[in-house]
Design a protein that fits this description.
With 187 residues, the chain is an alpha+beta fold. The protein has 3 domains: 51 residues, no CATH class; 61 residues, no CATH class; 66 residues, no CATH class. It has 3 helices and 6 strands, in the order E-E-E-E-H-E-E-H-H. The strands form 3 sheets. The chain has a two-stranded antiparallel ribbon with strand order 1-4. A hairpin with a 5-residue loop joins strand 2 and strand 3. The longest helix is centred in the last third of the chain and has 37 residues. The termini are close together.
Length: 187
């Protein structure tokens, strides 16, 4: 989407949202109360046309396990299975190099050192938002393909003076419409 087409920010690429909070006050010795200047709004990247993480940079990591159904009603079994799945997932993250480590120097007095591990994640709410955006974008592309196919079919029929289009011609128009829409999309 071109930034000038954005109906959220009108092409600015960012939006300003109000900050709702208490107004800080200053009490003087004379009993006068004055408001301190406070932040009333903050600027954020536009959620529609602002910078986004390319989907190639996001990895989904899965770990699956098969569990014995005979223990499904045992107390604590679900928790055991969930913990096992979490351990398997952590193992996959280690194998994939998603977790980085930093080691401190040795504390000679205590004869210890620290290892810090770090993992970057996307919050579940952001993943749901991304999935929603992808689904919306797929719907937009599908609608554009349909509109373009209808345009091509309407134009073809009027050019040759025919009112009907054969199945093979319709299929060709749909493929051509998809090609036209995907080649004209803005990245």
């Amino acid at each position: 989407m071109a930034q000038h087409d954005c109906d959220i920010c009108s092409g600015a690429g960012k939006i300003r949202l109000p900050v709702y909070g208490r107004v800080p006050a200053v009490y003087s010795d004379s009993g006068e109360i004055t408001a301190k200047p406070a932040e009333t709004s903050r600027t954020f990247a536009c959620p529609q046309c602002g910078p986004k993480v390319e989907h190639e940079r996001i990895a989904l990591v899965y770990a699956r396990a098969t569990c014995a159904a005979e223990f499904v009603n045992e107390p604590g079994y679900d928790e055991h299975v969930k913990r096992d799945a979490a351990h398997r997932l952590a193992d996959e993250l280690l194998k994939g190099g998603f977790i980085t480590y930093a080691r401190s120097s040795v504390d000679e007095l205590r004869r210890t050192f620290k290892i810090t591990s770090k993992l970057g994640v996307v919050s579940p709410s952001a993943v749901a938002t991304m999935e929603t955006r992808i689904a919306e974008r797929q719907g937009d592309v599908a609608a554009k393909v349909v509109d373009e196919a209808v345009r091509l079919i309407d134009t073809w029929g009027s050019y040759y003076g025919r009112e009907t289009v054969t199945k093979s011609e319709a299929a060709r128009f749909v493929r051509e419409a998809l090609r036209n829409v995907t080649s004209n999309r803005e990245t």
